[in-house]
Structure formats: structure tokens, C-alpha cells
Amino acid sequence: MAFSLRRSMAWMTLSQGCGAVLQFATTVVVARLLTPYETGVFAVATAIAGAIALLRTFGLSNYVIRAPAVDRDFLAGVFTVNIIVSALVAVLIALISLAGGKLLGEPGVRHVLLALAVVPLLACLEFVPSSCIERAGNFRVVALVNLVRNAIGSAVILAAAYAGHSYMSLAYGQITSALVAVAVMNVVGWRHASLRLGLKGWRDIARYGIDILTTSGVSTITQRMLDVVLGWMLGLHALGLYSRAAGLMAMIWENFQVIMLRVAFVELVSQRNAGHSFRGSYLRILSVSTALLWPAFGGLAVVSGPALRTIYGPQWVEAAPVLSLLAIGGIVTTTILLTWEVFMASDETRRLAKLQVVQSSFSLVAFTLGCLGGIVGAAAARVVETLFNMRIYRPHLARMTETNAADVLPIFGRAAVLMALAIAPAMAVMLLHGWSPDAPLLQVLPAVAAGMLCWLVGLWRMDHPLYREIRRAAARLFPRLAAPPTP
Question: What is the domain partition of the chain in residue ranges?
């Protein structure tokens, strides 16, 4: 079956939609069972583990996806490099667990790190089948596997949290999710499953891996270092508050990335292999994405206080300004959407690596200075970082996608109008109540609903590409409603 962008996104949307509901429900329950301090323990442990795990960011799955051709020897070589790196990461996490516990005077950090050391060893066992399935564009299988692993992982987290396992319940959930992924992916992808070792093409793999390690690895270690810096400067309670707001934003981004960006990368690679320009695909994806994300992030920035109070409880209201600022940063970030994917598909990984070093250096300095102003100052520093990123990446995106300001500014203009329509009712309610997190839900929720209706009307009046996609999907799901009346 030929690769279909719409069909792939439909499957990923179904999977991530269900997964988002599960994840959201899980975080709500866990937030009421765990204190901010316990959340901070897990956050700092994952920050340390993530910093070490940068070694696994060789991007070898994408190396398989973008390869012109693959055979058994090729896959054996990539698998061998992957398992060596994964084993090294596991050992380092286990060794650093002792230092992690002493660094913050919290033995819980050591316990979480020891548990997380198992995850990279498990992940490497699903590498070959999952990479080959995604390379073939079979996102139906990818979507279903993600749904199963998320459902079982969430169930384990909730069961462990109710049983009183505190922060360890989150670690148990990650381990279970990895185990399920290994089992299911090797069953459904049995044709690709292999533990065969080899060294074919290791030089090319190493060159590619070093570029991606510099890019994704530097980004990963920087993000984890920011968590450690915040926890060290402001304490674990502040880190717990910040991580709750950042976690909600990450949940939105991660689900969107799985739905849109993973599929978009396969689309861009297919365009490159066919000798076509990225221009059409890039502008279409950018238009649909901004029409979705700008109103969503804008609305989240407006109702952050009532949202946190209602969803997680009053103890998390202090994180509302952080969530609002991070949502504003998300709006800016969407202006350079597909940066990583375009660079990768264009085989400009070396240039991307150099730009990532510059970006990460700026981020670390800005965030550290921002922490002097508390968690709100730290969040404001992230907004400054997104503006800096837009400045350094946008010219390269324009070059590789053969686009210019005249192409993207109308897209951003339409997204801004849609965002204004979507947030206006909720903003009026929040202003009426002095922007208080105690604004009554009986007023906030109808305002949000009214904003969504205004957004839909705006899409219709603009005849926006997103509206046409919604209409096309509705026609496929409800053909009788879409069919013209018979005379």
C-alpha cells in the first residue's frame, strides 16, 4: 500500500487522541496522589537520566527511514551500534544513581535512577521492527502499538500510586511501557525482528550519529540541565511546580509531534527521493499546524489559572503564570515548525548540529539568569529563547523549503485571527474576574466553548486548508451527510 499522508495522520490522530486522554487522566489522578515534592524527586531523577541518555540520541531510527535501501547486513550494523550505545547508557545511569542521590540529599533520586537504567536496554530490542515499520509508512501499526503501550503503562502508574509507591509509580509505568512496546512490536513486526549483529557501514553510521548526537544530544542535556539548575537554585518544590506546567505543555507538544511531525518526516523524505521540492508539503503542514496550535496555546495562556486549579487542585495554582508564559513560547515555536525534519531530510545534519550548540548555549545562560526571578523568571527566559531560535533557524528553513516571507506571513496572519477569535470570550471572562484562578467554571467553560465555535466559523469563512481537511474527513466518516440531496 502506497504511503498516504492523510491516512497516516488519521491513524496517528486516533492513537494520540486516545493516548492523550489516558495521559491526561493519569496526570490528573497522580497530581492528586503525589505532592509537588514527590513530583520534583521524579523530575530531577529523569533530568539526570535524560542527560546521560543523550548518548542514545544517535537518531538511528531516522537513519533507517531515510536510507535509500536496506538489507539484512545494513540493519545488523545499525542494530549493533544501537545496542552498544544503549548498554553504555544503562551502565552510566546505574553508576550515576549514587551521585544523584547524594547531590540533592534525597535517596528517592537514587531509587528512581536505578529503575530507569532498565529502560534503554529494553528500548533497543524494539529498534529494528519499529524502524522498518515506520520506514514503510505503516503508521496504523505504529498507532496501535502506541495506544496499547500507553494504556498499560498508565494503568500501572495508577495502580502503583494507589498502592502507595509514591514517585516510584512513575518509574514503574515507564518500565512497563517499554516492556509492552518490545513484546508487541516484535510480534506485529516479526518479519523485521532480528538480533543479528554486524558492522556494515559503521563509518557512515558513526558520522551520522555524531551529527545527531550533537544536535539532539546537546538539546537533551541542556533541557535536563535546566531542570537541575532550577531545582538547585529554587528547590524541589519550585521544580515540581515548574515541571507540572512544563509537563502539560510537553504533553500537547509530544502528542502533536507524534501525529504530525513523525508522519511529516516520512513525507519529506519521500518528496526528496522523488526529486520534488519541500515547498508545497511544508506550507500545507505549517498552515494546518498554526491554525490548530495558536488558538490552543493562546487559550491555555488565558485560562491557565482555572485550568490548573480545576484539573490538578489548588496546590498547583502557583504554576499558572509559568504555564501562560510557556504557552506563549509555544506560539513562537510554531513559526519554525519542522526545523529538525527539514534539516534531516535535506541531509544538512552538520549545519543543524552547529546551530544547536549556539541555541543551547544561549538557552542555558538565559534560563540561569531567569531563575534569579523565580519560576516566573525562568519561564520568561524560555520565551526569550524561542525568539532567539526563530531568528537563527528561520533563514535556513526558507532556503531549504524554497519559501519566503510572502509565503509564510499570510499563514501566520490567518492563524493570529483564528487565535483572537478563539480566546476572546475566555479573555473577557478572565478580565471580568481580575484574572483570578478562582474564576467560576460556569462562566469559563461556556466562554471556551464559544471561542471554539468562533474558531470554527473563522475556519469556514476563510475556507482555510484545515477546514477543507475537516470537511474531507467528515465526508469519509459520514458520507450520507456529505452527499448532495437528491431531487
Answer: 1-200, 236-479
> Look-up: residue for cell 529494528?
128
The pLDDT assigned to 1 comes to 44
What's the residue count for the chain?
487
Q: Residue 287 burial (CB < 10 Å; 0-12/13-18/19+)?
A: buried
Average pLDDT of the residues in 450-469: 92
Q: Which long-range contacts (CB under 8 A, 24 or more apart) does 139-142 make?
A: 139/7, 139/8, 139/9, 139/11, 139/12, 139/262, 139/263, 140/11, 141/188, 141/189, 142/11, 142/12, 142/15, 142/262
Provide the 10 A C-beta neighbour count for residue 21: 12
Q: To the nearest 10°, the Cα dihedral for 455, 461, 466, 471?
A: 110
Q: What is the per-residue pLDDT across 141-168, written as a single tens digit (0 to 9) for each? A: 887 888 888 889 888 888 888 888 877 8
**Measured distance CA(267)–CA(135) in Å, rounded:** 10
Q: What is the pLDDT of residues 428-442, one digit of tens each?
A: 999 999 899 889 989
Nearest of 264, 276, 274, 279 to residue 402 by alpha carbon? 279
